[in-house]
Amino acid sequence: MTAATHSTLFPQVPETPDAVLDGLDPEQREVALALHGPVCVLAGAGTGKTRAITHRIAYGVRAGIVQPATVLAVTFTNRAAGEMRGRLRQLGATGVQARTFHSAALRQLQYFWPKAVGGELPRLLERKVQLVAEAAARCQLRLDRNELRDVTSEIEWAKVTQTVPADYPAAVAKTRRDAPRDPAELSQIYSMYEQLKRDRSVIDFEDVLLLTVGILQDRSDIAEHVRGQYQHFVVDEYQDVSPLQQRLLDLWVGDRDDLCVVGDASQTIYSFTGATPDHLLNFRTRHPGATVVKLVRDYRSTPQVVHLANGLLSQARGRAADHRLELVSQRDKGPEPVYAEYSDEPTEAEGTARRIRDLIAAGVPAGEIAVLYRVNSQSEVYEQALADAGVPYQLRGAERFFERAEVREAGTALRGAARAGRNDSLLDEAEGLPSQVRAVLSTKGWTSQPPAGSGAVRDRWESLAALVRLAEDFETAKPGATLTDLVRELDERAAAQHAPTVQGVTLASLHSAKGLEWDAVFLVGLTEGMMPIAYARTDEQVEEERRLMYVGITRARVHLSLSWALSRSPGGRASRRPTRFLNGLRPGSAAPGARSGAGGGGGIDRGTGRAAAASRTSTAERRPRSPVRCRVCGRTLTDAGEMKLMRCEECPSDMDEALYGRLYDWRAAQAALLGQPDFCVFTEKTLMAIAEAVPSTEGELVVIAGVGNRKLGRFGTDVLAICAGETVDGETEESADGT
């Protein structure tokens, strides 16, 4: 083991208290030395906040100013608490308690319960879903598995915001919250759930906080005991505290002021769980003499990434925006963020996979690359694209698409319908594969319109909708395909993704990416309706979506790509617009009323494919695609096959028959070479469209339905050569002459 490796994995404990301060920048050093009185650290993304507060604690302990057993550092995840304990040990500050709010409260509750209440602490309910289900049943309300998850989360929100069952409907109305059920019904379930817990002498995780608060409020002797034990408090991610956690913190601190809080209002993205930045923003009001230190030196990201992050927040509105931090990168210059526009979602996924493959080839480890999206249902197309590109990947914060419960259930239902065939009454009026799939999945929760709001019900719908889209695309690629064919395709896809877990590119939602960082980050699906999400209706909800995107941007150290697709599927209407959050930041866009300094700059890659070839104008000048009309009679076309040909089936064709014959023979040779069916190269409709259009450039070829940028790259050279009358490999002179 080299010395360098040893110092990285096993850093030596600083020999003196002053040595603990070595390597801190002026602001971090100020935090470390501010050991008395209230301290508020406003720390931007990548500014070393954990380093600052752990060195603060370690310096106080090593200098003998504070005793380690009197320090309580609280954060929000076990991972963060473990990281803090590890850093403190490396700095020689053993004995400090670094815990989550829940674990600290549970420890106190277990210790003081016999004295405050008597007997043993009630059993802790590890999972409350089953009890919520029973409560709903007793209220004569039926909930499916996904509704159960949403109702359970709603009960948790009510408890951390200190809302009792009777007040829940009014709280929903006041906060304009999207409740998963009728608020009156949910109030009933909530009330019955609490009753069942009392009857069975069990408590849940929220009760741990509530009961600790109750004991500390009612028993001043116990409160003084706790305050005698813990005299110095540090709270990380303070922007994420709920009203209940703040109440507990107030009781721990009492009338003292030895409290250090660390946070960034611009990273508040969990309001749906009860988190609010108000406590951070009001800290100076509650503690007029507080020391406030701002950490703005960004050690994580390049100036180009930081410039974009600052520009995004410069257009923000609201109270959190008024307290935004202007980050200053401390790194060398890097590449400009790339803005990529694609014709459709599969093309966006393919383009992303291709760029990831290029980065890996250039030396960026796969584990240092992430693809971040707004909702988990977006993962499937990227799982497939990466698998096709031979790029290893891992999912964070979500099951693999084909392992999701609703996808497994849908697969079972489709398999049953395929076996039953026309004996299944569900399929009586369903014509064509997509209609049959929609009919089957309608029994599993799919509807033509998505459900309102967010949560498990919406996630379930998104998963089922992805299967419906897959069926539509499958029929387009394989006309006449049956349910049996689709089930076989689903099985093959699922089998390909059940490989052992490997260290690879991370696929994650933006929420689950908080607290992490990578060398290269791809933010995908950045269209209106997805970013901000469609159900973000109020100004504050939209601003939280902006903050979520800010968190995504600031996960990148060096490489950052932001992309969107103009339509969902190949050949679809290009009606989507890139997110409003990039207005004024991406080249070619304008942001009316943007604050000064909110510039963007940077390279742009609009991708290749239908959108790029159809228009060379800026995105701001783009217009919705007009209806597709027959180029012979002018009738509006709706059939996918006719739209490929740009004419009615019955209208006369001006197809070059000889060219079609050459293309047909060439396709057969290619398919044999690849060991695939002929249609996997091009469908007959696409061959006919090529033979009618006789393209002479890549731009003319790529806009033909069924080509796309992927097949353009694979077969474009041959096709254009054949259209130009040239002979290509595998084609005989006889066929080239058309005789």
Name the features.
alpha/beta, 739 residues, single chain, 46% helix, globular, 31 helices
Description:
- With 739 residues, the protein is of the alpha/beta class.
- Helices cover 46% and strands 10% of the residues.
- The protein is built from 31 helices and 16 strands.
- The strands form 4 sheets. The chain has a 6-stranded parallel sheet with strand order 3-2-6-7-1-8. It has a 6-stranded parallel sheet with strand order 11-16-15-12-14-13, with helices on both faces. Strands 4-5 form a two-stranded parallel sheet.
Largest sheet, strands/sense/barrel? 6 strands, parallel
Separation, N- and C-terminal Cα atoms:
72 Å
Give the % helix.
40-55%
Please indicate the percent range of residues in DSSP E strands (runs of 2 or more): 5-15%
In brief, what are we looking at here?
With 739 residues, this protein is an alpha/beta fold.
Topology:
Blueprint: H1 3-9, H2 17-20, H3 26-33, E1 39-43, H4 49-62, E2 71-75, H5 78-90, E3 97-100, H6 101-116, E4 123-124, H7 129-138, H8 145-160, H9 168-175, H10 183-200, E5 202-203, H11 205-218, H12 220-229, E6 232-235, H13 243-253, E7 259-263, H14 278-281, H15 283-286, E8 291-295, E9 297-298, H16 303-314, H17 319-322, E10 328-329, E11 338-342, H18 345-361, E12 369-373, H19 379-388, E13 393-396, H20 405-420, H21 433-441, H22 456-477, H23 483-496, E14 505-509, E15 518-523, H24 539-553, E16 556-565, H25 610-614, H26 640-645, H27 657-674, H28 684-693, H29 698-702, H30 708-723, H31 733-737
Parallel strand pairs: 1-7, 1-8, 2-3, 2-6, 4-5, 6-7, 9-10, 11-16, 12-14, 12-15, 13-14, 15-16
